[in-house]
Design brief:
The complex is a heterodimer of chains A (533) and B (224). Chain A contains 13 helices and 19 strands. Chain A has 533 residues and is α/β, with parallel strands linked by helices. In chain A, the strands form four sheets. In chain A, strands 4, 10, 11, 12, 13, 14, 17 and 18 form an eight-stranded antiparallel sheet that branches. Chain A has a five-stranded parallel sheet with strand order 5-2-1-9-19. In chain A, helix 2 packs parallel to helix 13 and helix 6 packs across helix 12. Chain A is globular and about 65 Å long. By secondary structure, chain B is an all-alpha fold. Chain B folds into two domains: 83 residues, no CATH class; 105 residues, no CATH class. The longest helix of chain B is centred in the C-terminal third of the chain and has 16 residues. The radius of gyration of chain B is 19 Å and the shape is globular. The relative contact order of chain B is 0.18. The mean pLDDT of chain B is 94. Classes of the chains: A alpha/beta (533), B mainly alpha (224). The interface between A and B is large, with 74 and 73 residues. Strand 3 of chain A pairs parallel with strand 1 of chain B, so a sheet runs across the interface.
């Protein structure tokens, strides 16, 4: 055996090729006819759909995944370059509005096999137990119909599959990680010293990059392009962690296939209408699972004659995290482009502290902006022309910390259909977003903590950008059809064979990056679906 | 020279004069000044994987033709971009052409504010506004761009803050995707398959042999 201990029941890391980056099994992947009634058609080959397919395929389910974007061959399609990776993002038109609009595209929406995890940073923290009952504990947000205890075995299982590297974790439900922490860069070291001086405890990780070889996945080469897709196959995403095993067990991942409508007759779903090569087709299926994430999942349901929307819940309670970043300047060169952007983090401010004057909290994490992102950061601080060029020339002396502030679920923050149509003739999504007072207080407090850290570190200057990160909610799970879209088994209320499995089902989002929780939810759903068969 | 922070714009009245920076001795930077005078990222191109090399070298060697903007739009927008990006001398990164190529192929960022037109239309309205205000004949174009940034000029009725953000997002994405800009700021560029070994703080522990050393002073002979 090569590398560290592999997970049980998932051979993905060994099904990859040491010398090529694509999925070798894709060439002999099983194919189904549109007319074959498969057991399950999943819309979206990301964190939710990919993990669910892998689990159920091992139980003998016949599954087709429809993916709007391409089936990547990283050797051929991906470049080690910021601008050249624009193709990873969902860039089909969308309209944004509300009092505090959320910019979409490269920051939060993926397109192609592997989904948004192809370009996520790689942070893989668990949610805290409190995230599952914020209404009960803190009187804000919502309670989940699923508890942390129910999800814990799936967190542990997915952490072994990715695998996650990091120091022992003291926050939330304290736990250890399967892989030891990675070495950290000079930029992160500088940030860590500042945090410790300011009384803020930082830990290394948790990062979904093996520390060592893992099956046929090579060791990370610390090139810093995690947000531009990992050309090494070191960073975890469903593309390397679940889809190879899914395909080996008979799943068809049908790329370049854009779902436009869910078929429905006699109280049950019958399959999915999708567009491929400019032609509309219909894949028959005994059950349908929507895994298109927080914008596209509601959009697909709304475009299917408002399926699962009897109580006007589809698209509502969509959340983002407040992700302000503050960069700091130091005398020594730090070269923040080196090393994975996800290096160290703190969850010290995660839980409600009444003395702060608002409910819930935030996390602090390193980020490592490459030049184009760094330019947006400098621009956001108000610079252009000679001043902007001067800050850009100073790039190598800077290091950056970011917030993930938990913003609360609000009914009016929602996806609806706009009048404008996309290239497939389908109405585009419109996303309205407005912060509440608690959100503003959280972001303002968190920003002050970052400034305090840099002051304690002796920073010579700082630059600030206000922004958002991540998407969750939009098809939330709940206790009754009046206040949610799906039940605790991800089943649409009143439709026995329609499921939603992605970040959109989350009733709250904590102050943690959502990828690991999306995968853990999919793992739990698969267990329940296969037990019920 | 750069350990202290006296050159940083927020810590002084006006940004320092870049012509006082070291002149580039290897490769190119926009306007040929920078902080890493002996660093040319393109000298590492043979260590990049082939697909990356093709994409990045094409950016340097193949300047796309202007197809989206009309000639009179291109002319005035070029003058605007020179001020907004402080490209006041040759050699210049061909930002206008790079922005034009994205708008021509419809490569957007995937969202549009509900009170804004398509990105291309925002650019066209900026061009119309600049032409109406005689931007090409202004003695102090920098002052005009400052007022534009501060929302003091009409953008044909557009939300000025959002319009500025759309235009600058395209401009900066083009400028800082160009290897000449990487030379100027000392960015390591594409790093696959070689990666990095030296990740520490400072020049000794944090710089690979193939990365540029920061200049500490001007060359008394070549920079005079």
């Amino acid at each position: 055996m090569k590398g560290s201990r592999p997970p049980r029941d998932n051979r993905s890391a060994f099904l990859l090729d040491v010398h090529r980056r694509g999925i070798p099994g894709a060439a002999r992947m099983r194919r189904y006819e549109d007319g074959d009634e498969v057991d399950l058609v999943i819309v979206g080959a990301g964190a939710g759909g990919g993990t669910l397919a892998q689990r159920l395929a091992r139980k003998g389910w016949r599954i087709v995944i429809l993916e709007s974007g391409p089936f990547w061959d990283p050797d051929r399609d991906w470049v080690s370059d910021e601008a050249g990776q624009h193709k990873l993002y969902w860039t089909a038109p969308r309209v944004i509005g509300g009092g505090d609009p959320v910019e979409l595209g490269k920051n939060n929406s993926g397109h192609g096999v592997g989904g948004s995890m192809i370009h996520y940073a790689g942070y893989a923290p668990r949610f805290h137990p409190s995230d599952f009952e914020t209404n009960n504990r803190d009187g804000v947000g919502a309670d989940w119909p699923v508890s942390y205890e129910e999800l814990r075995p799936h967190y542990e299982r997915v952490e072994r599959e990715l695998p996650v590297a990091g120091q022992d974790w003291p926050w939330g439900d304290p736990h250890a990680y399967p892989h030891a922490a990675h070495p950290i860069s000079g930029a992160a070291e500088q940030a860590r010293r500042g945090a410790l001086a300011a009384g803020v405890d930082m830990r290394i990780g948790p990062v979904a990059i093996p520390n060592g070889t893992f099956g046929n996945r090579p060791h990370c080469i610390y090139r810093g392009f995690c947000l531009q897709a990992c050309k090494v196959n070191a960073k975890a995403s469903p593309f390397v962690t679940h889809l190879p095993d899914a395909i080996e067990h008979g799943v068809e991942v049908r790329a370049d296939s854009h779902a436009v409508r869910i078929g429905f007759a006699g109280g049950r779903c019958t399959g999915v209408t999708y567009v491929r090569d400019g032609r509309e087709r219909f894949q028959r299926a005994a059950a349908v699972c929507v895994s298109g994430y927080s914008i596209e999942s509601p959009r697909l349901l709304l475009n299917s004659d408002g399926l699962a929307n009897a109580a006007d819940q589809v698209g509502r309670y969509l959340m983002v995290q407040g992700a302000t970043q503050v960069a700091a300047r130091f005398p020594d060169a730090l070269r923040q482009y080196k090393g994975p952007p996800p290096e160290i983090s703190s969850e010290q401010f995660y839980e409600t502290d009444e003395s702060r004057g608002f409910a819930r909290g935030f996390s602090i994490q390193t980020v490592g902006p490459l030049p184009i992102d760094w330019a947006q950061h400098v621009l956001a601080d108000g610079h252009w022309g000679h001043a902007l060029r001067e800050y850009m020339r100073d790039y190598n002396h800077w290091t950056t910390l970011g917030l993930l502030c938990e913003l609360l679920p609000l009914a009016e923050n929602r996806v609806t259909l706009a009048e404008e149509k996309d290239a497939h003739g389908m109405p585009v999504a419109r996303f309205d977003y407005t912060q509440c007072d608690n959100d503003r207080a959280n972001i303002a407090y968190g920003t002050k903590v970052l400034e305090r850290i840099w002051e304690a570190a002796g920073a010579q200057d700082t630059l600030t950008i206000g922004r958002y990160a991540h998407l969750v909610g939009g098809c939330r799970m709940g206790f009754s059809p009046e206040d949610s879209v799906v039940d605790r088994d991800h089943r649409a209320w009143g439709i026995p064979n329609l499921f939603v499995c992605d970040g959109s089902v989350m009733p709250t989002q904590g102050a943690a990056n959502p990828a690991l929780t999306i995968m853990a939810l999919a793992s739990r759903l698969a267990e329940r679906l296969s037990a019920g068969r | 020279m750069f350990r202290d922070a006296g050159h940083l714009p927020k810590l002084r009245d006006t940004p320092p004069d870049p012509t006082q920076l070291p002149r580039q001795r290897r490769g190119r930077t926009p306007q040929m000044h920078g902080r890493y005078p002996d660093y040319d990222v393109l000298e590492n191109a043979r260590h990049w994987d082939e697909t990356t090399r093709e994409v990045v070298l094409a950016r340097v060697n193949e300047v796309p033709p202007v197809r989206f903007f009309a000639p009179e739009e291109a002319e005035v927008l070029r003058l605007f971009l020179d001020v907004a990006l402080a490209q006041d001398a040759e050699p210049r990164i061909p930002v206008l052409e790079m922005v034009d190529a994205r708008l021509f192929t419809g490569e957007t960022d995937g969202y549009r504010y509900d009170d804004m037109p398509e990105d291309g239309e925002t650019w066209r309205r900026l061009a119309r506004q600049l032409r109406a205000d005689g931007f090409d004949r202004l003695a102090d174009r920098e002052e005009y761009v400052r007022a534009l940034h501060d929302g003091e000029h009409a953008w044909e009725g557009l939300n000025a803050e959002r319009a500025w953000s759309v235009v600058m997002r395209y401009a900066l994405s083009a400028f800082y995707s160009h290897p000449w800009a990487w030379n100027e700021i000392g960015f390591g560029g594409p790093a696959y398959p070689r990666g990095y070994m030296r990740m520490g703080v400072g020049d000794h522990r944090g710089r690979e042999p193939h990365e540029g050393a920061e200049a500490f002073e001007r060359d008394p002979v070549q920079d005079s």
